[in-house]
């Protein structure tokens, strides 16, 4: 292992374009904004597929799927635009490690660009063919099913690549993309991401249908607003609660070299804000229906703080792990 690490240069002897602290803040903040809309895009696609399939037997769910589908391409565009800053930041801060991981994952990393472009075309085709293919639902659903299948695969490549850059000592054991999936932490991170996508989408859809300006009766008149509010709040509550399990698995499967007490306290701080958010959500779900949503702003604020803590913890682990490599 020592011989392998000796082959990794400590850094590129060029000055950074900005102070390192500024680049770190930019990386963490821009990544959190980017991943928010990625979560909404992926979670919205999964829920649209689920409700459109249910709509084969009950048309009101087809109407719900249609409404959710209208948000996906918007969130997709924001995810793409906001993905530029974190990509550039990580390239600048961790050039050697990031590019080395890219090279080791090879063609899978390169094919992300055409694959993502293909998925976006499928999303547009699905959205704008809703009326055209309303009498050919199997074909229409199949278009989205392929897009969702791609969305379920793409995170594997990203997570495997980001995970691999942290462990130069493992580079000699890697023989293509598939071998990176056997490294510690890839699968727990993957499920952590998918569950987060559904949690964020549940909260977003609660807000989306709760707006006074939203024409609920015209769009979703077969439902009551409260029924959908409770459904989406329950989705957010259940998936966020499960993150205590998946988040713990992510932490426990992290190689020990990047873990220190600072990281532990950062993650604990995030959990400390998540718990009262869960309590408020449960009170909303089980309370009087006329008062549902009264704590929504508090819930979102608390979970936003939690996410900031977790994003900071993610970077802290990365910095710790790579700092040991440089020594």
UniProtKB/TrEMBL annotation:
Organism: Saccharicrinis fermentans DSM 9555 = JCM 21142
Keywords per UniProt: Membrane, Transmembrane, Transmembrane helix
Cleavable signal peptide: none
Keyword Membrane: yes
Keyword match Transmembrane helix: yes
Membrane spanning stretches: 23-51, 78-100, 106-126, 138-162, 190-210, 231-251, 263-283, 295-317
Domain of life: Bacteria
Protein name: Uncharacterized protein
